[in-house]
User: What shape does this take?
Amino acid sequence: MKPATIRIGISGWRYPPWRGAFYPKDLPQRGELEFASRELATIEINGSFYSLQRPQSYESWYDATPAGFRFSVKAPADAKSLAKRLGLR
Assistant: This one.
């Protein structure tokens, strides 16, 4: 059996209070994903919970991150409520 890989990351990357604390003070907002993806192994995409994301968004996020970086995509809210109604876990 292959050993499991544990990745430590954050839930999203746009948090104004982190500017000047985690993110460099002068970093433009458009550079936050690129910066965070070089500090952490994974980031959750929160926006997918609230609405469908455009394929172009996924492509630009992929392009902003280094090779081997992993995203965790949060299931849409509709999928969670459907699973609950169907009695699925």
Q: What stands out?
A: Residues 9-85 form one domain. The chain has a mean pLDDT of 90.
